[in-house]
Each structure stands twice: as structure tokens, then as C-alpha cells.
UniProtKB/TrEMBL annotation:
Gene symbol of the encoding locus: dprA
Family of this protein: Belongs to the DprA/Smf family.
Start and end residues of each DprA winged helix domain: 283-330
Lineage of producing organism: Bacteria, Bacillati, Chloroflexota, Dehalococcoidia, SAR202 cluster
InterPro entries hit by this protein: DprA, DprA_WH, DrpA_SLOG, WH-like_DNA-bd_sf
Region spans: Disordered: 1-20
GO biological process: DNA-mediated transformation
Positions of the Smf/DprA SLOG domain: 35-240
Domain of life (superkingdom): Bacteria
Protein name: DNA-protecting protein DprA
Length: 346
């Protein structure tokens, strides 16, 4: 820790922290930052109701701007997890810091994808940094401190309580330039984060989902209200005028699994991407063929098993078919072909 920061931190501890809490802060390698401290994140400091102190473990860099919050359902669908993985991976590869809340579901998928991309990610907790919740994400929290940071407004020893999370959400949005909602019920924590984002004058992005899925009612409504419809990382990068440079220059100019090759050079990465796109089209045609041949609705598990494809890939295709009016969900995860509409793109 720089001497200047260490000295300011020591003075803050002496004035504000009980001895036992200060001892835990030292033992855990945590840095408390007062709102007026030079290292307090500027984006967050400018927001209404910014925490008077935040506790940080890990590394904060100037490169953590720009940052995007990725939020959504704890009980994410395979489609939601896959879209989170793709978007977060591409954002991290573009040099964007991915911010989320370390919860299961969408949060976990976002942090994991950013780490896999070699990018930076920050997790905002609703507890002390020694009380990571859920406990199964403790290993991930440790990895985040190696290539990012953990944040909280709660001192060591404070457990995760239900009333902490709505307030925690203002920190998630406050640290970022925009909030991406991947999956969310109409009444959910992710929608509370959107409320904070709007109050903080942040951009809101939303991934479209099935009109019949409870977990997409919030995101679809946000799009109707003017949120930016988002299916690729470029939708966010272009809206915020962010250039794809930072991480690529640090870890090598590799294409991400889902981004297109814009250089015009048809190299190995472009061939890989083309193969993936062709595979998606192949799955789409096979799903449509299967639905059209059946007089009864087919459960998504049966479609996956029949085609021998990954559940996430099949779920993603089904959502796209629904959005085009090519398929309909008629029961709990059961689908039929919509024979009144054209089913596939030429």
C-alpha cells in the first residue's frame, strides 16, 4: 500500500473503527476508503447517497473506467447464463471492467466470464468482506481479488442480511457507466438496481427474452420503456463510445468467442467464428424441423436430448425463434412451431 494511502487509512481507522475491527482490517488486507479520500472511486463519489466509507480488498486501477454492471436473476435460465457469459466475456476483452454482486446465477456467470477473458471484475457485497455470501463463491471472490477487487460498505464481521442488498445495489450502479440487465422478473433486485441507475443518470441496457418467461418480463418491459436492446457487447460499446483496445493490448489480440472479425482478414479466428455461426444456424434449422414434425408441444429437455446439443445453445435458439414469431412456448418449457409465421431466415 502506498505510504500516503496507508497513512490516511491509519488516521481513518483511529477515528472511526473499534480496535477489534481495525485488527480484522489489517489481518484481512482490507483498505477502508473515506468518501473524501483521493482513492475513493470518482464515479461513485459523485452519486447521491454514496457510502461514507467503502472497504476494498484487491486492486483498483485507473483502467477500471469504463465499467459496466451486469445484473439479473439468481435463478437464471440456461439462456440467461449463456447470454451473460458471451456479453461479459466480450466486454472484458474490450477493456471494460465487469461489476456485479457475486450472487448465484447471472452475477456468478458475469464474474466468471470476465476472469476467463483475462479482464477485470469487481464484486460488491452486502456483507463484510470476511463474510462472503454465498459461501460457495468464496473461491471466486479470492480470484477476483487477484484481478479486480471486492467492495462493501459494511465492516468486517457484518453478515449478509436481506436489508443490505437493496442498498448494496446503489453501489453496483454507482461504480459504473451503465447497467446491463440480462434476466429479471418485474419485481426483483435487478430492477431495484435499475431504479438506482436512473437516479444516478446511468445508461440502462437490457437483453430481450421470451415473452412467456417470468425471468424476462422485467427486461422486456425495460426495452419497451426505452432501455437499449442488447444482444452483443458492441451494442454497449457503441452506445457509450468505448473503443476495443485495453485488454486486447494487454493480453494479445485474440477474438472473443462471440464477436465478429472486423478487420476483414479471414484468419483462423474468423474461421472459428464462422463455424460457430454456422453451428447456430444448423441447430436452428434442426429445432424448427423437430417442432414442425410434432403435433404436440415438446419440452426443451427432449429437444436438447434429441438433437444432442448443449442446453444453453438450444435455449438460446428457442428464444430467438420466439422473438421472430417462429415458435411459441405453450407450457412449462414446452414449445411448438408457429405455423402461421415464417420460421427461419433465408
Amino acid at each position: 500500500m502506498p505510504r500516503k494511502v496507508a497513512g490516511a487509512t491509519e488516521r481513518f481507522r483511529d477515528a472511526n473503527e473499534p480496535d477489534e475491527v481495525s485488527g480484522e482490517i489489517d489481518r484481512l488486507g482490507i483498505t477502508p476508503l473515506h468518501l473524501r479520500h483521493d482513492d475513493y472511486p470518482a464515479q461513485l463519489a459523485e452519486t447521491p447517497a454514496a457510502p461514507s466509507v467503502i472497504y476494498v480488498k484487491g486492486k483498483m486501477l485507473a483502467a477500471d473506467e469504463p465499467a459496466i454492471a451486469v445484473v439479473g436473476s439468481r435463478d437464471a435460465t440456461p439462456y440467461g447464463v449463456e447470454m451473460t457469459r458471451r456479453l461479459s466475456y466480450d466486454l472484458a476483452r474490450a477493456g471494460v471492467t465487469v461489476v456485479s454482486g457475486l450472487a448465484r446465477g447471472i452475477d456468478t456467470a458475469a464474474h466468471r466470464a470476465a476472469l476467463e477473458a483475462g479482464g477485470r471484475t469487481m464484486a460488491i457485497l452486502g456483507s463484510g468482506l470476511d463474510r462472503v455470501y454465498p459461501q460457495r463463491n468464496i473461491p471466486m471472490a479470492e480470484k477476483i481479488t487477484e484481478n479486480g477487487a471486492l467492495f462493501t460498505e459494511y465492516p468486517p464481521g457484518v453478515s449478509a442480511l436481506p436489508q443490505h442488498f437493496p442498498r448494496r445495489n446503489r453501489v453496483i450502479s454507482g461504480l459504473c457507466h451503465g447497467v446491463l440487465v440480462v434476466e429479471a422478473a418485474f419485481k426483483s433486485g435487478a430492477m431495484l438496481t435499475v431504479n438506482w441507475a436512473l437516479e444516478q443518470d446511468r445508461d440502462v441496457f437490457a437483453v430481450p427474452g421470451s415473452a412467456l418467461s417470468e425471468k424476462s418480463k422485467g427486461t422486456n418491459w425495460l426495452i419497451q420503456q426505452g432501455a437499449k436492446l442488447t444482444t452483443t457487447a458492441d451494442d454497449i460499446l457503441e452506445e457509450l463510445n468505448i473503443e476495443r483496445t485495453s485488454v486486447q493490448s494487454l493480453v494479445g489480440n485474440q477474438e472473443t468467442p462471440t464477436s465478429s472479425n472486423k478487420s476483414g482478414e479471414f484468419g483462423e479466428n474468423a474461421l472459428d467464428n464462422l463455424a460457430r455461426e454456422n453451428n447456430v444456424l444448423s441447430i436452428e434449422h434442426r429445432v424448427v424441423d423437430l417442432l414442425e414434425k410434432s403435433s404436440e408441444p415438446i419440452h426443451v429437455d427432449d429437444i436438447t436430448r434429441t438433437l444432442g446439443e448443449a442446453a444453453a445453445a438450444v435455449s438460446s435458439v428457442l428464444v430467438m425463434l420466439e422473438l421472430r414469431g417462429a415458435a411459441r412456448q405453450v407450457g412449462s418449457m414446452q414449445f411448438i412451431a408457429d405455423r402461421e409465421r415464417p420460421v427461419v431466415s433465408p
